[in-house]
Amino acid sequence: DAEITQSPRHKITETGRQVTLACHQTWNHNNMFWYRQDLGHGLRLIHYSYGVQDTNKGEVSDGYSVSRSNTEDLPLTLESAASSQTSVYFCASSVYGRNGELFFGEGSRLTVL
Amino acid sequence: DAKTTQPPSMDCAEGRAANLPCNHSTISGNEYVYWYRQIHSQGPQYIIHGLKNNETNEMASLIITEDRKSSTLILPHATLRDTAVYYCIVRAAQGGSEKLVFGKGTKLTVNP
Q: Which of A67, B46, B50, B112 is least enclosed by beta carbons within 10 angstroms?
């Protein structure tokens, strides 16, 4: 069955380190999204992409970057991890033109010490 | 995107219908109502969406009032596995703001 997978599921890192969270989907969806979820803030959009070579900033993009070199993958990079980036990160994808129907991964819990 | 208001928590007996309300009094004519749920520690799951007609799928039914200022998600026969946080979201289905504003949702607890 088609799916969306995130890795690693859990990671602990130190302040200042570069971290990359992987997201891979096998639905051939054009659209992919990264959200973070924190208590008291709900889910907030970090970056999103509508296709290969396309990337866009969301509401909380500072300190994060993404690249889209193929349809299946949208890795999220924290250039220099900060304690404020401790969070649960969710990747999602959707069919072109149906941006409201997102399919989410199981999440990656990141702790920055 | 219009804001929504949901009760913070609800309880339901297993096997009974769960009716989750949502107010969206500032909804625009081109905005749809979406429902998602998030079971503890998992990613959100899309349930259903609608514009003005009632909708039903294998998971739930969505009832939207005629003035579109409120809606109700109905889980016809709730099970323990339906315990989750349910989010009501209003957004344009095409274009518009690309983010889904999840808010705090309703914590539904299905009791045996």
A: B112
